[in-house]
Amino acid sequence: GERSSHRVIALTLVMMVVEIGAGFAFGSMALLADGWHMGTHAIALGITALAYYFARRHADNPRFTFGTGKVAELGGFASAVVLAVVAIVMAAESLQRLIAPQPIRFNEAIAVAVVGLVVNVISAFMLQDRPAHDHEHGDGQGRHRDHNLKAAYFHVLADALTSLLAIVALSAGKAFGWTWLDPSMGIVGAVIITRWAYGLLIDTGRILLDRDVDAAFVSKIVQRIEADADNRVSDIHVWRVAAGSLSIILSIVTHHPQ
Q: Phi/psi of residue 138, each to 5°?
C-alpha cells in the first residue's frame, strides 16, 4: 500500500499542475475543479503515506499500548475531512460560474480532461488491491479494512469521476452550446464526493471511537466460553485496534479456573 501511494502522489501532482493550468487557460470550470480536486488529493495521499511511515516507525514503541494500527484509521479520517472540504469549494466555485458564465475553449479542455481520466484510472488500479476486497464475512469479523488505503483509493476514484464529468460536460457544451453544463457537473461531482466523504468518516470514526465490533460477534465469543457450563462471562469488551486485529478484555466467573 505504501509504495503504491508514493507513485500515485507523484502522478497526481503532475496531473494537478497540468489541469489547473489548462483550466485557467481554456476557461473550463469542470477542468479547474478537477485540477484543484487533484491537488487536495495529493495532500490526502500524502497523509496516507505519512500514516504508513509513522505506524511502521513506531510499531515496536511500548508507549502505544495496542500498537499503531489506528494511525491508518486516523489518516483515513483526516483524508475524509479533506475530501469534504474539496466538495464544498467545488460546489461554491461551480455556483459562481453558473451565475456568471465564462467562455470555454472546448477542444483543448476536453483533451486535458481525457488525459486526467487516464491518469486516474491508472492510479486506481495501483491502489486497488486491498479496498477491492472490502467485504464482510458472516462472522462479523470480516471488516479487515485498511481505511487509510481505502481513503486514498476513494480520493483517486473521486478524481476519475470529476474527470469523466468534465469530459461529458465539455463535450455536450461543445456540441449543443450548453455552457451551463460545465459548472453543473462541478456541483454533481461535489455532491457525490460529499457522500463518499461521509461514508469514510463514519467507517473510520467507528474504529477510532472503539465501537466497531458488532454485538453478534461478541455474543459468539461469550457462547464459546460459556460452552463449559461452569464458566460465566460477567464483563466483556471487544474492539478493533487495526485492520484485522482485535483486542478483548473479559472477566470470567468460574469455580474451576484454567
A: -65, -20
Burial class (CB in 10 A: 0-12, 13-18, 19+), 182: buried
CA dist 247 and 241 (Å) reads 7
Q: What is the pTM of this model?
A: 0.70
- DSSP letter at 254 equals -
Judge whether 33 and 186 are in contact, CB under 8 Å: yes
Give every CB contact of residue 10 below 8 A, 6+ residues apart in sequence.
none
Beta bridge partners of 235: 251
DSSP collapsed to 3 states, 125-174: HHHCCCHHHCCCCCCCCCCCCCHHHHHHHHHHHHHHHHHHHHHHHHHHHH
Neighbours of 91 (CB within 10 A): 20
129: pLDDT strictly greater than 80: no
Look up residue 220 and give its three cell numbers: 459468539
CA–CA dist 206, 228 (Å, integer): 33
Query: Could you tell me if residue 252 is left (phi over 0), alpha (psi between -120 and 50 degrees) or otherwise beta?
Result: beta
| Contact (CB, 8 A) for 86 and 193 | yes
192-231 pLDDT, tens digit per residue, is: 878 888 988 988 888 888 876 888 889 999 999 888 888 8
Rounded to whole angstroms, how far apart are CA atoms 89 and 115? 23
Residue holding cell 496531473?
15
